[in-house]
Specification:
With 145 residues, the protein is an alpha+beta fold. The protein folds into 2 domains: 3-93, Ribosomal protein S6/Translation elongation factor EF1B (Alpha-Beta Plaits), CATH 3.30.70.60; 97-133. 44% of the residues lie in helices and 33% in strands. It has helices at residues 17-33, 73-82, 99-135; strands at residues 3-12, 37-53, 56-68, 86-93. Strands 2-3-1-4 form a 4-stranded antiparallel β-sheet, covered by helices on one side. The longest helix has 37 residues, at 99-135.
Length: 145
């Protein structure tokens, strides 16, 4: 039975766009060789590394989600380690979300967004009333009173 996984890897910044695409295609090819199927892939972009790896301070982050038999995972890991353009990689098992879970998450996000917008409106009203109070004219009483 196939399981769902997520692979995140960092390609060295010294590889240009065409070489980056070649590295990405290599990884995708390895997954397909292992009878895996890619469900999603995304190039997150160039980012500074937390610490230098082989004197390299930046890398391009790539995330790939795929389905594969668990027994093929170790071989995939070994093939990725052999790719010189990949500085680091991490494969994690990922739970596939059901339609109900996706719908629930969307509802929660929408509710949080509405609550945040409401709080911002209230803060805006409060700040306007404070400004109005500060700008109110000072009424001087006559010395006769």
């Amino acid at each position: 039975m196939q399981k769902h996984y997520e692979l995140t890897y960092i390609v060295s910044i010294k590889f240009l766009d065409t070489e980056l695409q070649t590295a990405i295609e290599k990884v995708a090819g390895h997954i397909k060789e292992m009878n895996g199927s890619i469900t999603a892939d995304q190039i997150i972009g160039k980012q500074r590394l937390a610490y230098p790896i082989d004197k390299i301070h930046q890398g391009t982050y790539v995330v790939v989600e795929f389905d594969m038999e668990p027994e093929n995972l170790k071989e995939l890991d070994s093939l990725i380690k052999l790719q010189s353009e990949i500085l680091r990689h991490l494969i994690i098992s990922k739970k596939i979300k059901t339609e109900a879970e996706i719908k629930h998450e969307k509802e929660v996000q929408e509710r949080l967004l509405k609550e945040t917008e409401q709080e911002l409106k209230e803060l805006e009203k409060e700040s306007k009333t404070i400004v109005k109070k500060e700008k109110a004219p000072v009424v001087k009483k006559n010395a006769k009173d």
